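Q&A log
Question type: sequence-to-structure
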Amino acid sequence: MVSIATARNGFSSAAVQCGTDQKSDVFTKVIWYIGTMNTAMAEDRFVVERVQTGVRMEKRILKVLKAFAEYHDITLGDLLEGIVLHAFDGKTPFSEESLRRIKDLKKFYGLDLDANASHKLKEGRSNLAAGAKRKKK
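Response status: OK
Response body:
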């Protein structure tokens, strides 16, 4: 016997009756989350080969990206892959709500750069000097 009931919290529970006779009937309660589980998502996974990279990036941009990834409980790599794949398809990677969150994070981390600064960034003198010292060692 299996009975399923949905509780107010979005969880469903199934009571499964098992046992060899009525005296030793054991009920096992199984609880699983079905509210946002998308079974198609689990089936549509792609096997990829990931590589470690040492990409240099403007410090405040990285802080915003890391905070945004943390907010969505994903890795920075997953976030960057998503942004790039959307951009490659000519799609916007962010919803209006995400753009509001990014605006707040940019303000918090003092990021005053926008798309107009793209391809116009250059290293500060202190960073260049530090890089030259590391190469000499």
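Response note: The chain has five helices and three strands.
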